User: Which sequence fits this backbone?
């Protein structure tokens, strides 16, 4: 049995109205972890779902071979699949909050698969559930089994979900983006858990868009692009010496440990006028194998480029504190005595995990909420203490880029309307001068004029964020507050947006506050860094110093958890 | 990228192509509109002309829908009655909507005290079944087409108000409203440019759905003798007149009833189809 592959896929094809997976083949041996990586739309999730018979009614699935634990599962009926799911293959999804029934205790959720597929009695099931929770590292399992999914943290929920997936000890475990929604430290723990499960002899198919994540646990990597596996091999080999252009692009896009100012995206900025050159660059880098340098920089890295800081403090936070009322009426300190100053032309990175008060800090800086103690000053002038009407005149100098770009646009407005409005012109009548300024903005953020007539809903994630940046730039701000601007983007799109922010900062001499949970990203973009935890800044200083020699134990822990290309 | 956009635009065109139900509803809506605006085109006769000799004629070639107890042609009457029903339906919905917008905006925009007061008032109105509220209003102000219209409008207002309030609250806390604040827009600019349009747009779909309901209610009131009065060619009133003869002359009540059902269904189907389109767009 152990000689046999846990999963064999040969020439898998999945069609909806168009082909989505085109001829994918791979095998996974027991005790091996294969990572299927690719960007959104590459077909990796559809591949995973087909392995469970969950591709959907509209999907047409065909393959030469599709074998789970040595048995063909091609063309199984829904009833036959039900017997296998959970027993022969377990599934862990990205969003544990919606994958667990919010009204049932997690203990019962986990016991479900035992009840359906095993002959264990109630008492034996309860014992097994406790064992499982212990196995996945949930502290004090006895008190956790009765909790609802809403009462658990993200990491605990993910552990519970994994416990449910491995309850029957299936030979194959499929984990679809299991750590994407988690904080870095929690992510590191979940990855370690997956590694333990692999070592215990289970075959694991790990699906992720993040190369750095998979490099920690996967034995082998298969890179998917456009429905095909374009490159496959040992993890170290694929990440260390990527052969395919797509792999190289993804490797290059990982921001951790790349010097400030170096470019992450492989191709030059695709502007409306230089699309032809951009493709030319792409093909030229394609023809140039560079195993020694995984950063094929289209533009030379220029960390020494004039990032002219004359030392002027443009934005200053002094002892900011902000409370929030909990649902039960008690007060919680969201931001606690936070102070920092931002110098002209530099970037201050604020990093922290969810609930650390980063976003509240951003809202305080944007004067969307007022602090209870302390104050924010812009160019030395009172900002948070001023009245909204007196602040309105200077609002143009402080711009914002949001994580949820889509939500930040009025859904009824086209891109043209959004930009016209942000220029302060009337949306109905656009003068030729306004049009000229709009096209200059589009050029600056690398968008073609064709997007103007579209509404944000009809744009891709990267295009939306570009429009968001264009809108922020329209008012000619001196300061840009970016709250998780790249968190919901694919790695290579993230790389392009980070490069774009770097460009506009340099060209316009902008000062940036860059808020992110992603240490790798923050390290790449920041001059100064503030590490936040539970509303406080636990450590701050020059980025190089904080990353090289973190002082606070929490910073040390956070840094250790950053996914790197540890090939 | 190009391919993705191509599939997308294909999806959009697919969503725009009407289904069979929508097509039928569209044709019916056209028919009702012509009936309401220019009934002479579809039924040249006089809806009130009496021909005692041809009373109670069953449907035949001369009288497609038959005649009533005074020999009036039912088809002519039904077509001419469309304007009453549509007018009452539209006017009642307009009244309900305006009241709803007023109350909902009050509750959604102006502080806790106003919100509390308006909410308790709405809850009192909600405690009465809609039709009972309308009846109460007519008891106080006397029967008639105008009072029936206002009565139906009043009884639909609380529902609209509730929806507007909820919609306002969610739009008000939307990220794009915050983004507008960051761009330095004033409260009034934000209210007029972002909050109100985004609150009201989904409401017009609801209003289309509401017209069907209002038509049924208005006909109900007329049937009870509290709205339009015989011999006015109003569907509810015709239905009521036909009730006496239902065992011998079924067509007297069947055809007005059929038209009530058809207008209500048409309005509903169209409302839903607009709703679906707005969601997809």
Assistant:
């Amino acid at each position: 049995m152990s000689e046999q592959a846990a999963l064999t896929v040969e020439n898998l094809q999945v069609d909806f109205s168009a082909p989505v997976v085109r001829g994918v083949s791979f095998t996974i041996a027991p005790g091996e972890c294969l990572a299927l990586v690719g960007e959104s739309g590459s077909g990796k999730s559809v591949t995973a779902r087909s392995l469970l018979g969950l591709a959907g009614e509209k999907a047409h699935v065909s393959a030469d071979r599709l074998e789970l634990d040595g048995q063909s599962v091609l063309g199984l009926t829904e009833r036959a699949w039900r017997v296998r799911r959970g027993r022969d293959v377990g599934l862990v999804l990205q969003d544990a909050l919606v994958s667990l029934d919010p009204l049932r205790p997690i203990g019962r959720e986990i016991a479900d698969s035992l009840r359906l597929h095993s002959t264990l009695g109630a008492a034996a099931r309860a014992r097994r559930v406790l064992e499982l929770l212990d196995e996945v590292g949930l502290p004090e399992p006895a008190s956790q089994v009765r909790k609802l999914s809403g009462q658990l943290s993200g990491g605990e929920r993910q552990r519970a979900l994994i416990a449910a997936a491995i309850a029957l000890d299936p030979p194959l475990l499929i984990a679809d983006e299991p750590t994407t929604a988690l904080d870095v430290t929690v992510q590191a723990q979940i990855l370690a858990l997956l590694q333990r499960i692999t070592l215990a002899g289970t075959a694991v198919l790990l699906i992720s868009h993040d190369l750095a994540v998979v490099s920690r646990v996967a034995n082998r990597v298969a890179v998917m692009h456009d429905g095909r596996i374009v490159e496959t091999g040992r993890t170290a080999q694929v990440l260390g010496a990527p052969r395919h252009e797509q792999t190289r692009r993804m490797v290059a896009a990982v921001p951790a440990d790349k010097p400030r100012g170096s470019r992450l995206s492989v191709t030059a900025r695709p502007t409306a006028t230089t699309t032809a050159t951009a493709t030319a660059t792409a093909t030229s880098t394609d023809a140039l194998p560079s195993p020694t340098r995984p950063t094929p920089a289209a533009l030379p890295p220029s960390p020494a480029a004039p990032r002219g800081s004359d030392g002027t403090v443009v934005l200053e936070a002094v002892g900011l504190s902000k409370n929030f009322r909990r649902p039960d009426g008690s007060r919680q300190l969201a931001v606690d005595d936070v102070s920092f100053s931002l110098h002209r032309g530099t970037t201050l990175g604020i990093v922290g995990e969810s609930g650390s008060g980063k976003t509240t800090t951003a809202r305080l800086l944007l004067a969307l909420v007022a602090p209870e103690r302390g104050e924010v000053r812009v160019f030395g002038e009172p900002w948070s203490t001023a009245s909204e009407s007196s602040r309105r005149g200077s609002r143009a100098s402080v711009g914002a880029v949001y994580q949820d770009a889509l939500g930040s646009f009025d859904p009824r407005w086209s891109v043209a309307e959004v930009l016209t409005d942000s220029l302060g012109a009337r949306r109905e009548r656009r003068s030729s001068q306004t049009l000229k300024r709009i096209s200059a903005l589009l050029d600056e953020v690398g968008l073609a004029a064709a997007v103007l007539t579209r509404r944000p809903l009809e744009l891709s994630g990267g295009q939306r964020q570009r429009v968001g940046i264009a809108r922020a730039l329209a008012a000619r701000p001196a300061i840009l507050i970016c709250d998780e601007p790249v968190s919901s983007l694919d790695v290579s799109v993230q790389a392009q947006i980070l490069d774009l922010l770097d460009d506009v900062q340099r060209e316009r001499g902008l000062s940036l506050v860059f808020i992110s949970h992603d240490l790798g990203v923050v390290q790449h973009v920041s001059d100064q860094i503030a590490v936040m935890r539970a509303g406080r800044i636990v450590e701050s200083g020059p980025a190089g110093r904080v990353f090289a020699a973190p002082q606070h134990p929490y910073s040390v822990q956070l840094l250790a958890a950053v996914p790197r290309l540890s090939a | 990228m190009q391919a993705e956009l191509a599939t997308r635009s294909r999806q959009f065109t697919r969503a725009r192509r009407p289904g069979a139900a929508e097509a039928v509803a569209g044709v019916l809506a056209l028919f009702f509109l012509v009936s309401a605006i220019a009934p002479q085109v579809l039924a040249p006769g006089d809806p009130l002309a009496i021909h005692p000799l041809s009373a109670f004629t069953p449907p035949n070639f001369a009288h497609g829908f038959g005649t009533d107890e005074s020999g009036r042609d039912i088809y002519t009457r039904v077509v001419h009655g469309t304007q009453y029903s549509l007018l009452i339906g539209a006017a009642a919905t307009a009244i309900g909507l305006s009241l709803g917008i007023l109350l909902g905006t009050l509750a959604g925009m102006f502080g806790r005290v106003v919100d509390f007061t308006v909410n308790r008032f709405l809850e009192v109105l909600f405690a009465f079944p809609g039709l009972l509220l309308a009846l109460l209003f007519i008891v106080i102000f006397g029967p008639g087409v105008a009072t029936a219209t206002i009565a139906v409008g009043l009884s639909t207002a609380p529902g609209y108000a509730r929806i507007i309030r909820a919609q306002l609250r969610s739009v008000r806390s939307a990220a794009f409203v915050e983004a507008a604040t960051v761009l330095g827009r004033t409260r009034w600019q934000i209210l007029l440019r972002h909050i109100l349009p985004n609150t009201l747009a989904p409401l017009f779909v609801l209003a289309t759905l509401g017209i069907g309901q209002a038509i049924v209610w208005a006909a109900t009131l007329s049937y009870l003798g509290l709205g339009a009065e015989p011999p006015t060619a109003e569907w509810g009133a015709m239905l009521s007149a036909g009730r006496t003869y239902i065992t011998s002359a079924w067509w007297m009540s069947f055809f007005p009833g059929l038209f009530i059902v058809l207008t209500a269904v048409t309005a509903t189907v169209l409302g839903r189809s607009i709703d679906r389109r707005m969601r997809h767009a």
User: Anything to note?
Assistant: The interface with chain A takes residues 1, 3-4, 7-8, 174-176, 178-184, 186, 193-194, 197-198, 201 of chain B (CB under 8 Å). Residues 116 and 172 of chain B are 18 Å apart (CA to CA).
